[in-house]
């Protein structure tokens, strides 16, 4: 496999920046949009977040199967970066609307959420799967994985400050009652940025992800290429490193996304007179820290390896997030501690794609079947499931501490909010380290497996061509 070029090295990750900007509109502000802007009852918000989250999780799995099954003319993975984004723009905006009664609004929001996520899950899975198609060299994969994470962090970094400002600015254009429209327009901008970023990925990877050669039925090449649902399932359940990775990723992301979403509530309770500014400042530090950590992940891998770098990063995040709880009354202290905690988390987060790509290589080496799309779809599955449970954790926590948009701020409410914001996420991330202890893949082994896979494919293609030539004669 040829090495990645300078365009890919420098610009890969821009798609994730745009995608991440768009998704931050949701992950950080969707729940507070439902409860405080659309003014839907807390029970309705819980139902919406759970229902859409479950549908999103299912679609993430289906997306991986679709990517594996299709072989489109612009490339097995690249094609989806071209086709999907325009449709996402329309339906994502519907997520941030309030049409008619509470019931009507809930239906429209759910439909916008489910359809937009189904389409972007396919594009997202294809984008992540593209890493394995671009290079088989571990440090290059770590570089691309770090670029993905860095892009993600940059998108979140800008969104953390700009989304609240954009929502207010757009709301001002519509006068009284324009708060909902403020979020609708902000969602449109976020989705448009995702489209631009994914189109950049599409163009800079030209020549790398070509349509797979079609083979006649009955040839060895056809046998190698054909992937069934059973093959996909074998790629999961006969893959201990993947099971460990999925559980680790799923559990730690509950804590990660819970902290992102609860910052807005924490700021409102602890700093009511400047909550918007505090929310933006904390999320800025949060995402800046993740960005710095992501950029360091490649260097950490060179010294400690993929697995150990991930464990160290998660452990450091747990320690500094928990410390932030004891300084919850100081905005400056919280900002500094959250920044440091996310530098550590960013190191681990920056290696997510590498972990899944290594597991995909292990699967193909063991089974002879390329189920990369389905396996990378499980990365999306982890995100979706974590957001579902994150929604339940937050809405349950809000109910326990007695929060409502009009509730009076008391010491009890403030104390509960700080526990939910700092201690609960730290616990989830700490528990997530346990499954990773069962991840037994060594980076050097993975590279050797990739080499063996390449030789098998070359031999299969040469045999198929020889058979075709012999049949023609």
Automatic annotation (TrEMBL):
Transmembrane segments: 12-35, 41-67, 79-97, 103-124, 157-174, 180-200, 242-266, 278-296, 308-326, 332-352, 373-401, 413-439
GO biological process: carbohydrate transport
Entry annotated with the keyword Membrane: yes
Alphabetized GO MF terms: symporter activity
Superkingdom classification of source: Bacteria
GO cellular component terms attached to this protein's record: plasma membrane
Pfam families assigned: MFS_2
Keyword Membrane part of the UniProt annotation: yes
Keyword field: Membrane, Transmembrane, Transmembrane helix
Annotated protein name in UniProt: Glycoside/pentoside/hexuronide:cation symporter, GPH family
Species for this entry: Eubacterium callanderi
Lineage, uppermost ranks: Bacteria, Bacillati, Bacillota, Clostridia, Eubacteriales
């Amino acid at each position: 496999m040829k090495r990645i070029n300078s365009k890919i090295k420098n610009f890969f990750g821009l798609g994730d920046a745009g995608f991440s900007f768009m998704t931050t509109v949701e992950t950080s502000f969707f729940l507070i949009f439902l409860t405080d802007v659309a003014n839907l009852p807390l029970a309705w918000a819980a139902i919406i977040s759970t229902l859409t989250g479950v549908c999103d999780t299912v679609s993430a799995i289906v997306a991986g199967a679709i990517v594996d099954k299709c072989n489109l003319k612009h490339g097995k993975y690249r094609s989806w970066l071209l086709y999907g984004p325009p449709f996402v723009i329309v339906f994502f905006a519907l997520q941030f609307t309030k049409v008619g009664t509470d019931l009507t609004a809930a239906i429209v929001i759910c439909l916008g959420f489910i359809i937009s996520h189904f389409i972007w899950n396919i594009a997202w899975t294809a984008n992540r799967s593209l890493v394995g198609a671009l290079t088989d060299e571990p440090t290059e994969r770590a570089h691309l994985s770090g670029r993905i994470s860095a892009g993600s962090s940059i998108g979140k970094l800008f969104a953390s400050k700009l989304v609240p400002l954009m929502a207010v600015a757009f709301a001002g254009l519509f006068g009284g009652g324009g708060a909902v429209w403020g979020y609708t327009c902000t969602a449109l901008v976020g989705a448009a940025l995702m489209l631009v970023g994914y189109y950049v990925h599409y163009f800079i990877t030209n020549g790398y992800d070509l349509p797979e050669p079609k083979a006649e039925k009955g040839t060895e090449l056809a046998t190698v290429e054909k992937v069934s649902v059973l093959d996909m399932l074998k790629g999961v359940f006969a893959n201990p490193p993947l099971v460990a990775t999925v559980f680790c990723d799923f559990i730690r992301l509950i804590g990660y996304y819970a902290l992102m979403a609860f910052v807005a509530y924490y700021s409102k309770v602890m700093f009511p007179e400047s909550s918007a500014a505090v929310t933006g400042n904390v999320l800025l530090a949060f995402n800046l820290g993740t960005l710095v950590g992501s950029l360091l992940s490649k260097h950490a891998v060179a010294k400690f390896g993929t697995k150990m770098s991930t464990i160290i990063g998660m452990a450091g995040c747990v320690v500094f997030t928990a410390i932030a709880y004891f300084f919850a009354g100081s905005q400056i202290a919280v900002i500094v501690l959250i920044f440091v905690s996310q530098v550590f988390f960013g190191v681990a987060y920056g290696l997510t794609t590498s972990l899944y790509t290594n597991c995909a290589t292990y699967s193909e080496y063991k089974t002879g079947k390329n189920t990369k799309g389905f396996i990378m779809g499980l990365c999306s599955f982890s995100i979706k499931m974590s957001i579902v449970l994150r929604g339940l954790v937050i809405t349950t926590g809000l109910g326990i501490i007695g929060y409502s948009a009009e509730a009076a701020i008391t010491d009890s409410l403030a104390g509960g909010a700080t526990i939910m914001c700092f201690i609960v996420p730290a616990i989830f991330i700490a528990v997530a380290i346990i499954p990773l202890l069962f991840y037994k893949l060594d980076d050097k082994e993975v590279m050797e497996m990739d080499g063996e896979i390449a030789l098998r494919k070359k031999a299969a293609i040469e045999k198929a061509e020889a058979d075709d030539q012999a049949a023609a004669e």
